[in-house]
Amino acid sequence: MSSSVPEQDPGTTRPGVWLVVGLGNPGPRYADTRHNVGYLVCDELARRMGGGFRAHKSGRADVVEGRLTPPGTPGPRVVLARPRAFMNELGGPVKALATFYKVPVQAVVAVHDELDIPFGALRVKQGGGNGGHNGLKSMQGSLGSPDFFRVRCGIGRPPGRQDPADFVLGAWSKVERKELPFEVDRAADAVESLLDVGLPLTQTRFNG
């Protein structure tokens, strides 16, 4: 986190509250799987925020509320969320949180795994399709729009003829596990950048 107010993209507006959703499946069975990288990034953001996840009163998600800027530095309120629902059903909890906190779809950020991006790379964008990702599909259906932001964490394609569904629900390889903390840290940096300076500058920094 920077101690100075960063340059902001011209024309970028700062929402009063951001909702950052880590996509994943709840429960220990899925904790170490590629599909849960969104949870890991939200865990890192919570650490930076200095808070711990607690149950939201809806009972449908765990949340942390705070700011991702140093104390005394202006910055938007941020709600970090880990839905208590499986991928194909998480849109409902996300919609409930967006309604509760009065967050428009353009201030929702989904952090998720992406098969079409190699491990070690990430992309940030707004809107678009779901690429077969059940979590994005569920969010789009419940929010009624695809226009939320996405921080797409690359996990690459499965080797050989392995079923992609088995691959995303599989554990990280030994090589991936060594690099994973750096990738999670970089994705958390991308979320902070998006909230601080907007999409175009963040894409310039991270989409290379």
From TrEMBL:
<feature type="binding site">
    <location>
        <position position="88"/>
    </location>
    <ligand>
        <name>tRNA</name>
    </ligand>
</feature>
<dbReference type="GO" id="GO:0005737">
    <property type="term" value="C:cytoplasm"/>
</dbReference>
<keyword id="KW-0963">Cytoplasm</keyword>
<feature type="active site" description="Proton acceptor">
    <location>
        <position position="35"/>
    </location>
</feature>
<dbReference type="GO" id="GO:0004045">
    <property type="term" value="F:peptidyl-tRNA hydrolase activity"/>
</dbReference>
<dbReference type="GO" id="GO:0072344">
    <property type="term" value="P:rescue of stalled ribosome"/>
</dbReference>
<protein>
    <recommendedName>
        <fullName>Peptidyl-tRNA hydrolase</fullName>
        <ecNumber>3.1.1.29</ecNumber>
    </recommendedName>
</protein>
<dbReference type="GO" id="GO:0006515">
    <property type="term" value="P:protein quality control for misfolded or incompletely synthesized proteins"/>
</dbReference>
<dbReference type="InterPro" id="IPR018171">
    <property type="entry name" value="Pept_tRNA_hydro_CS"/>
</dbReference>
<feature type="binding site">
    <location>
        <position position="134"/>
    </location>
    <ligand>
        <name>tRNA</name>
    </ligand>
</feature>
<comment type="subunit">
    <text>Monomer.</text>
</comment>
<dbReference type="GO" id="GO:0000049">
    <property type="term" value="F:tRNA binding"/>
</dbReference>
<feature type="site" description="Discriminates between blocked and unblocked aminoacyl-tRNA">
    <location>
        <position position="25"/>
    </location>
</feature>
<dbReference type="Pfam" id="PF01195">
    <property type="entry name" value="Pept_tRNA_hydro"/>
</dbReference>
<feature type="site" description="Stabilizes the basic form of H active site to accept a proton">
    <location>
        <position position="113"/>
    </location>
</feature>
<dbReference type="InterPro" id="IPR036416">
    <property type="entry name" value="Pept_tRNA_hydro_sf"/>
</dbReference>
<comment type="function">
    <text>Catalyzes the release of premature peptidyl moieties from peptidyl-tRNA molecules trapped in stalled 50S ribosomal subunits, and thus maintains levels of free tRNAs and 50S ribosomes.</text>
</comment>
<dbReference type="InterPro" id="IPR001328">
    <property type="entry name" value="Pept_tRNA_hydro"/>
</dbReference>
<keyword id="KW-0820">tRNA-binding</keyword>
<comment type="similarity">
    <text>Belongs to the PTH family.</text>
</comment>
<feature type="binding site">
    <location>
        <position position="30"/>
    </location>
    <ligand>
        <name>tRNA</name>
    </ligand>
</feature>
<keyword id="KW-0694">RNA-binding</keyword>
<comment type="function">
    <text>Hydrolyzes ribosome-free peptidyl-tRNAs (with 1 or more amino acids incorporated), which drop off the ribosome during protein synthesis, or as a result of ribosome stalling.</text>
</comment>
<feature type="binding site">
    <location>
        <position position="86"/>
    </location>
    <ligand>
        <name>tRNA</name>
    </ligand>
</feature>
<keyword id="KW-0378">Hydrolase</keyword>
